[in-house]
Write the structure tokens for this entry.
Amino acid sequence: MRTSLFLLLLVAITAQAQDKKSISHTIYATGNLGYGKDNGEVISMLGKLSQSSKNTTVLFLGNNVQPSGFDKNNNESLERLDHQLSFLKNFNGNIFFIPESTEWKKGVNGIKQEQDFISKNLGNNKVFLPKDGCPVKKITIDNTIDLLMIDSEWALMNWDQFPNINDECDIKNKTAFYNEVESEIVKSQNKTVLIALCHPPASYGKYNNFFSFGINPQQINNNIIKNLVIN
């Protein structure tokens, strides 16, 4: 049996067996909720879905805060995020927030502030991943599914603007990052691997630059993964 590989790119999907009577886990994904003030209905629905079953995961794939970034000393910033989180309390399944461009507006310190605020608000220190401005984190959903969460903004942005980037991370450069992503996928052999990130490696939409995330399929060493990406 070979590893199955899926990308979650600002869409909502359900991971399930072909037989609808034997759904093992349900995954919902959304993003860019920080750009509008009228997203309460969407977040409320996702909150209710996360309470419906412990075999449910809700992913927020970045841009979770207003375009200017999160500032714990700004009342509007606090109130907007607090309002969004109010719909997600008492969740029964998994909830994860992934950083993206608006999270990076205030640099690593801004990410840590948002990370701490969300974690304390929801009473869980594992809801904001990857942590501390680091690029990648893998968790186990169940014995058949692994979730690999990637901060794709980390891989794309100009690091010169963030002199303290990677200070608390094991991964210090982009070569090590891509090697780590490949390594984590290989480690999940014979399992379904869901890769959650904001920027699409390939798209026919307005982000239709195959190299926008920086993945060149010819440079991927693992032939199985290379075939999945190219095909």
Remarks:
- The chain has six helices and seven strands.
